[in-house]
Amino acid sequence: MVKKIIITALALVLLLAVLFMPIPKSPYEDGGTREYSALTYKIVDWNRLTADGIYEATKVYWFPNNFKSIDDLWTYEEQEVVHKFVATILELDSTSALVQPVDGEDELRSADKIHLSIADLGDIGAQVGSDVEIYYTGGIMESYPAQIHAVKWELAKALRHKEFTEEWLNKETAEKYDNNIFDHIVITEIYSNCFFAKTVIPMPYTIKLNGTLSDDWCVGDQISCTYENTYYDSENNRVEVDFLTVEASDWQPDPNAAYKPVIYLYPETETEVSVKLNLDGKLTCTYPAYNAGWQVTAAPDGTLTDANGQTYNYLYWEGETNAQWDMTEGFCIKGEDTAAFLEDALEKLGLNRKEANEFIVYWLPLMEKNPYNIISFQTECYSDAAKLEVTPAPDTVIRVFMTFKASDYMIRILPQKLTAPERTGFTVIEWGGTEVK
């Protein structure tokens, strides 16, 4: 009796294994798709090359679809593939748009005019003549004009089909600069004759790089360039260069560096001011150049003028410091809530709206995508490591230095009390920060 039970159990296990145990097959030559087949179902790990990139998904197909070939199953999956193309808007109203694919797009072979509903896509500020990048699923419906099922659209950043013809800056009034104003950058827009970029560590200026960028590079790529003929328009925060070479960059912020401390000077009347910084470490970048100190004429609105008549919004420095940061008090904030937190915290710490805005624009891109940020504003640790000497002596000094550490989890931390003195008389404001690893 026991023997029969054992045999029956083994037979049942064997039957279940045959029915439900998936057997892997060799990868397909479509990009690496793998399938795992059993008698009752099939698992397909899609990794298929398409005209718009790679379709990646893992799907389960139950009986009888598990007996279909990989090509037959692809006819179902293909309807979910998101295609994209760049087009110029010909007509536009609140619910629909008529567009023409630009030269070089595969969609232009199917139709010179394509109609799409935009009622559920949101307002992106497009108008007739704008170039947009359109994402759609399914095929192009044969009608005139043709139609597609659009799922997303945005103003195009990859504009290789057209030249940038606007004047970016006036080289007669812009400052001629050494060819070392920036290093690691991220591509933001591409035209046929130039491309635009921003620095990896956010700076207030935007960069135009003249020359044709090869198809090897895309919007969003982080790169490092060599370049020449550098001009800087400090009034409009614009830089223009002629680029020579481009290579990939995997540079990341140095967690031991103090990034972008900037110093604002607000005297009550126009005043000659000397600023010296005694750093426990070494300066790695300054602007204007730090020659044993800064000597500027400061106006009540914060405008700084050097001996050559060049004006600045603030004094900038960056450096490596030996400070030991105190993270025992502070805040643990969700990445998505960082902007709102900083707006409130910086007001309590004495920054005005303009100063707070420049702080947030600089640091938010490095923080908002983290699950959480552990944030602490340093006081004595910072002021002892970076002693500031201002002549004539200011009436009010506010120095805001933020340290933060990315975290995957919410942690408990003793809350930090944020206060600031009243801004009276000759006021000096400084802000900066660093990431703690």
Give a verbal description of the structure:
There is one protein chain. The protein is mostly beta strands. It has 4 domains: 22-73, no CATH class; 82-156, Nucleic acid-binding proteins (OB fold (Dihydrolipoamide Acetyltransferase, E2P)), CATH 2.40.50.140; 175-248, OB fold (Dihydrolipoamide Acetyltransferase, E2P), CATH 2.40.50.140; 257-435, no CATH class. Helices cover 14% and strands 46% of the residues. The protein has 6 helices and 29 strands. It has helices spanning 2-20, 70-77, 107-110, 338-348, 353-367, 380-385, and strands at residues 23-24, 34-37, 41-50, 53-62, 82-92, 96-101, 114-117, 131-141, 146-155, 158-159, 175-177, 184-191, 194-199, 206-210, 222-233, 238-248, 257-266, 271-279, 281-287, 294-298, 304-305, 311-312, 315-321, 329-334, 372-378, 386-391, 396-407, 414-415, 427-435. An 8-stranded mixed sheet has the order 19-23-17-29-27-25-24-28. A 5-stranded mixed β-barrel has the order 5-6-7-9-8. The chain has a 5-stranded mixed β-barrel with strand order 12-13-14-16-15. The protein is globular.
Mean pLDDT: 88
**Count of discrete domains:** 4
Shape: globular
**Ends apart, CA distance between termini:** 67 Å
Largest sheet, in brief, is: 8 strands, mixed
Hey, roughly how much beta strand do the residues contain?
A: over 45%
**Arrangement of strands in the largest sheet:** 19-23-17-29-27-25-24-28
Count of individual helical segments: 6
DSSP helix fraction: 10-25%
Q: Whole-number radius of gyration?
A: 29 Å
Number of strands: 29
Class from secondary-structure proportions: mainly beta
- Enumerate the spans where pLDDT stays under 50 for 5 or more consecutive residues: none
